Amino acid sequence: MTATTAAKLRGLVVVVIVGAWALIAHHGSAGGGNADLNAAVGVTPVVVFFLVLLSRTPSLPLRIAGALAGLALLVGLWPHARQNVPLLYYLQHLGAHLALGTFFGRSLIGPGEALITRIARSIYNGTISARKVRYTRQVTLVWTVFFFGNALLSTGLFLFAPPEIWSMHANLLTWPLVGLLFAAEHLWRMHALPPEERPGLVDIIRSFRRHSRRQDPAAPRS
């Protein structure tokens, strides 16, 4: 099997898993299905994120203590989680969007460069045009507004709309909206930048990963 085929298969597996998770999450947060299964699906992303953080802790005793504390917390909160499944999914959706909005938005504050500007410099070995600096700063702002705006919309729908409507937005439409914004940004890039200043998607992903590793001192170096 070639590397390209393996990458495509991995991508397909990810799409299938995310799609299945979204359907189960929609069904559960709209009030259907088994409460324990719905709660388990709802906490899975949080548990995975927590385990990733633990794996980056250099001390084995701290990893064990953290795992035991997390397990105790999960067991203690489980009755509340299974009785408040819609709230569980809402908090997960809200937290992810606020975290991403902050991740992008904080780079727009202060004297430093915007997040996507730094990623662009990484792709082009530190040298980019003033036009690209302006463009990448604007794109960083767009993503910041998107994440905070979607968090606000999610909150409004959760508070004032039927659960089915909120669940459809949060679980079924969020990823298509992200894809739509990627497509719109691609069209904008084609119009705003010359060919030599348009990196490919693979280059962007690799640079983003490198940047994320540099931001996290505990992350393993390649």
Automatic annotation (TrEMBL):
Transmembrane segment boundaries: 12-31, 37-55, 62-81, 87-109, 141-160, 166-184
Highest taxon of the lineage: Bacteria
The keyword Transmembrane belongs to this UniProt entry's keyword annotation: yes
Entry protein name: Transmembrane protein
Keywords recorded for this protein, A-Z: Membrane, Transmembrane, Transmembrane helix
